[in-house]
Design a protein that fits this description.
Helices cover 34% and strands 3% of the residues. It has 135 residues and is mostly helical. The chain binds adenosine-5'-triphosphate and magnesium ion.
Length: 135
């Protein structure tokens, strides 16, 4: 099923991120590399070894995971960083970017984000390329 398109949707706290992490860890265990666009940064914890908590202890016991080979482990991760600070710097053109991400990178205020959204919307509607942000 892994070569199909999929969508994981659900309300906050229903397990979307954990589901993704489980998929990624399973692929990694099989030697399959995974590219993840991690906007929120909450999957990056894969790089660090987990530790036992009350919650994980209960689940490991409940589902007999220890006998199935479960262990806390770190996964091999290489970071690409649009901010160019903590990983391989990534270069993209402005037009290829999404206004939400660009707003985050530029640390824009809500009002400025609104303006940027309009700029992208107009460019989309008029089939214009956004080359740079010169005023
Ligand atoms: N399969 C599971 N079995 C048991 N507990 C789970 C499972 N999946 C998630 N949880 C628990 O639910 C919590 C919330 O899960 P998760 O962070 O994946 O939700 P989310 O849908 O990504 O939420 P958000 O929309 O806020 O990002 C986790 O911290 C975990 O404790
Ligand atoms: Mg989540």
């Amino acid at each position: 099923m892994a070569n199909r398109h999929g969508l994981i949707a659900g309300a906050t706290g229903t397990g979307k991120t954990i589901t993704l992490k489980t998929l990624v860890e399973s692929f990694s265990d099989m030697g399959v590399p995974v590219f993840l666009a991690d906007m929120k940064g909450d999957i990056s914890g894969l790089a660090k070894i987990g530790c036992e908590t009350d919650k994980t202890k209960i689940n490991v016991e409940k589902y007999g995971l220890a006998s199935k080979g479960f262990r806390y482990q770190a996964y091999p991760v290489e970071f690409w960083d649009l901010f160019g600070l903590k990983g391989l710097p990534v270069r993209v053109t402005l037009s290829e970017m999404d206004p939400t991400l660009l707003s985050k990178i530029l640390n824009l205020s809500e009002a400025q984000q609104g303006v940027l959204n309009i700029v992208f919307r107009v460019a989309d509607d008029e089939s214009l390329l956004i080359i740079d942000l010169k005023i």
